[in-house]
Design goal:
Length: 325
């Protein structure tokens, strides 16, 4: 009799423990954003970073993008920023953006669960009126993200700002097993749209020096010499998507070698005047870009239009610039 009761207690304890582990958020979650848009131009924002640009000014588009490498292990912010109209222009009544945050398990990717949405409709005046509840909604990750009062995921009401264009954002508390990425703990960067020309030039020149080291190494095919500059970017990508240690480093190496050895493309070598800074709205990251607003490292096709580009996204910590993404 005593053995039976003891066994029952152990069984109940194990069942309770297994129940906690049923949440895919505690395992290897894969977060993604599905973006549907029509007749609109907009930025998609995650935690103060523009992760996608919608450019469907005439027609429709759909894309799904992974966001683990931008996600926080506790609280996250999603946003849709619709471009302001030029003076005298009128927005099409068909303009729409639908943003859906979903999650699936790396170990069982066939089951995907929607967590939260943000929607913009030009045909309706008040986005807060058609974006769900005005109170926080609680979802249970253990029960397929069903709405439950004791749920561990909290989806907050949207916040609308129409001071410049239209911004619709939402806070989501979604505790998960991802680590805290380095950029979350970075120094705050200046507002590059408002600082003096000298201050802007100081940071641009500092990043150009790092870029020039990469450019010079690539120009002579010495790829191994520059891979350490991407150490944080490579390591955090491995962690974010559950890759083997060093897998992203090797992938970047092979990609650089492919570009360097491709006789149909040529590395574009440029002076600093050809570059600029594109800060992310959260002021934790800044993109070092060319004047065409695209990736800094460029291999142009010979005799035809087009190029192979590589982004350089920096953060700053204790005065040191680090390639983050």
């Amino acid at each position: 009799r005593i053995i039976t009761i003891a066994s029952l207690i152990i069984l109940l304890s194990c069942s309770k423990s297994e129940g906690k582990e049923m949440s895919i958020l505690n395992g290897k979650p894969l977060f993604s954003l599905s973006i549907k848009a029509s007749d609109v131009r907009a930025f998609i924002e995650v935690n103060g970073i523009y992760v996608h640009t919608v450019n469907s000014s005439s027609g429709s588009s759909y894309v799904e993008i992974p966001v683990n490498h931008y996600f926080h292990p506790e609280t996250n912010y999603l946003g849709v920023v619709v471009f302001p109209l030029a003076e005298g222009k009128k927005r099409s009544a068909k303009s729409t953006v639908n943003l859906t945050l979903s999650v699936k398990s790396d170990e069982n990717p066939n089951n995907k669960y929607d967590i939260a949405e943000i929607e913009y409709r030009a045909s309706q005046d008040d986005p807060s009126g058609y974006n769900g509840s005005n109170s926080p909604v609680f979802l249970s990750s253990i029960d397929a993200f069903a709405e439950k009062d004791e749920g561990d995921v909290v989806v907050h009401p949207v916040i609308v700002d129409d001071s410049e264009g239209i911004s619709i954002s939402r806070k989501i508390e979604v505790p998960n097993s991802l680590p805290v990425w380095g950029f979350f703990e970075s120094d705050d960067l200046p507002d590059y749209f408002r600082i003096s020309k000298d201050e802007y030039a100081r940071d641009k020149d500092a990043l150009y020096e790092i870029y020039k080291v990469i450019e010079q190494s690539l120009s002579v095919g010495e790829v191994d010499e520059i891979l350490d500059l991407f150490e944080e970017r490579n390591r955090e990508t491995d962690q974010a998507f559950y890759l083997d240690q060093g897998e992203t480093r090797e992938s970047l190496k092979q990609s650089f070698l492919s570009s360097v050895n491709n006789e149909k493309i040529q590395l574009l070598e440029s002076d600093s005047i050809k570059f600029g800074l594109r800060p992310e709205p959260g002021r934790k990251l800044v993109r070092f870009i060319r004047t065409d607003w695209r990736g800094a490292i460029a291999f142009n096709f010979i005799g035809e239009e087009g190029s192979v580009r590589y982004d350089l996204v920096f953060r700053k910590k204790d005065g040191e610039w680090i390639i983050s993404r």
